[in-house]
Every structure is written in C-alpha cells, then in structure tokens.
C-alpha cells in the first residue's frame, strides 16, 4: 500500500515544519508548498520523504500546476493542511488597500484554490481531511486588526461552509483557532517574553494530527489553541 499524502500550503519554519514532521513521523509523504522555492528546499531536507513545490496560493493557475505536480510525484492528496497566511495590521484609515487585498488573497482565496485542487481526488476516494490554520481575529476584530481580522473572518466562513457541505461526502474540514504567538527564533527575537507567552509549534502539530484521526461519528469543526498563560 502506498503512503498517504499530506500537502501543506504555507510551509515555513514554524507551524509548517512542525506539521510536516508530525505527519511524516506517522507515515505520510509530505508536500511542502510556498512561494519561496529556496526556503522550501531547505525545509524539505529536515523532513524524511518531503518534497518542495513552489506555488502562489492566490493564483489559480499556480495552484493547479503545483497540485498536479504533487499528484504526479507523490500521489493524490489525502490531507490538506492549509497553513498559508498573510497579516496586515493598522488603523482602517492607515493600512494600504493593496495590503488589505493581499491578506484576503492569501488567507481566503488561497484556501478556495487549494481546496478545489484536492477535492476531486478526495471525492473519488470518499475520504479526506482539510485542516485550516485560523486565528482568534476571525472571531473578534480588534482595533488595528481591520486587515487581518477581515481576511481571517472570510477564511473562517469559507471553512465552515466547506465543512457543512463536504462532511456528508466523507471529507472532514476543521479549523484551528490559534490564540497567541508561535515560538520561533524570529518571534523570540522580536519579543522579550517568558516561555509561557508562546505557543509551541510541535504541540499545535500534535493536536492537528489527532483531529485528523477523529472517527466520523464525532468530528470537530472548530478548536482553539493557546498557551495557558494567554489572557482570554
């Protein structure tokens, strides 16, 4: 039996790499997908059996080409972990319209394109998993979050609609509401905070993996993750 295939749009050194390692450890072949081909190749060397595929998730042709290449090289995608995201912060009257659109393009339109790329194979199998990396901003738009919150809210609504449509077809759609800052060298450099302030990417990846193992009689759609020291 061939190994199942997990595709991770938005693969990077934080959640993306942790997700790749966790699923690879459980026997998956992992497709790392992002715009920066050089960075992807470096990440792929850290994950057994992983392959890198350059892609702009906001461009339909780029997505179609990337996922066709994944299928040719690895097989049909069994699990889509949509981790791509773009953030723009600032007051509504100070953020740039292009940045506002870019956040929506990556968070919502990219999910639309990637989901459509994997659906034919999942439907043919009558089985599949799609997990989206969301954010608390999708549920409450704070001051100076006009760009990010609106993009994540659009992503959340799309994921919810997909879950309700695709569940009866055997395709489990879920979204992780991430409430906090991921622990990476970059965030550590930017923020002088204690360990309890940060979310551990490996812990997030473990929870996501367990969500994809749920029996159909008890599927989760929305789950939130935060460090215990986070105020909520």
TrEMBL record:
<dbReference type="InterPro" id="IPR002347">
    <property type="entry name" value="SDR_fam"/>
</dbReference>
<dbReference type="InterPro" id="IPR036291">
    <property type="entry name" value="NAD(P)-bd_dom_sf"/>
</dbReference>
<dbReference type="Pfam" id="PF00106">
    <property type="entry name" value="adh_short"/>
</dbReference>
<protein>
    <submittedName>
        <fullName>SDR family NAD(P)-dependent oxidoreductase</fullName>
    </submittedName>
</protein>
């Amino acid at each position: 039996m061939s190994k199942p295939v997990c595709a991770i749009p938005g693969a990077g050194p934080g959640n993306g790499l942790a997700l790749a390692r966790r699923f690879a450890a459980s026997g998956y072949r992992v497709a790392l997908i992002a715009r920066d081909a050089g960075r992807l190749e470096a990440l792929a060397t850290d994950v057994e059996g992983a392959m890198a595929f350059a892609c702009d998730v906001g461009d339909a042709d780029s997505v179609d080409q990337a996922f066709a290449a994944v299928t040719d090289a690895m097989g049909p995608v069994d699990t889509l972990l949509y981790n791509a995201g773009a953030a723009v912060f600032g007051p509504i009257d100070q953020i740039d319209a292009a940045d506002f659109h870019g956040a929506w393009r990556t968070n919502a339109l990219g999910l639309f394109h990637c989901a459509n790329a994997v659906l034919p194979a999942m439907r043919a199998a009558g089985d599949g998993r799609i997990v989206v990396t969301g954010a608390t901003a999708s549920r409450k738009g704070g001051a100076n979050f006009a760009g990010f919150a609106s993009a994540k809210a659009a992503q959340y609504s799309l994921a919810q609609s997909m879950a309700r449509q695709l569940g009866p077809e055997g395709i489990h759609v879920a979204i992780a509401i991430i409430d906090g800052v991921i622990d990476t060298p970059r965030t550590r450099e930017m923020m002088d905070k204690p360990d309890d302030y940060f979310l551990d990417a490996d812990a997030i990846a473990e929870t996501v993996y367990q969500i994809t193992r749920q029996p159909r009689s008890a599927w989760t759609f929305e789950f939130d993750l935060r460090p215990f020291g986070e105020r909520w």
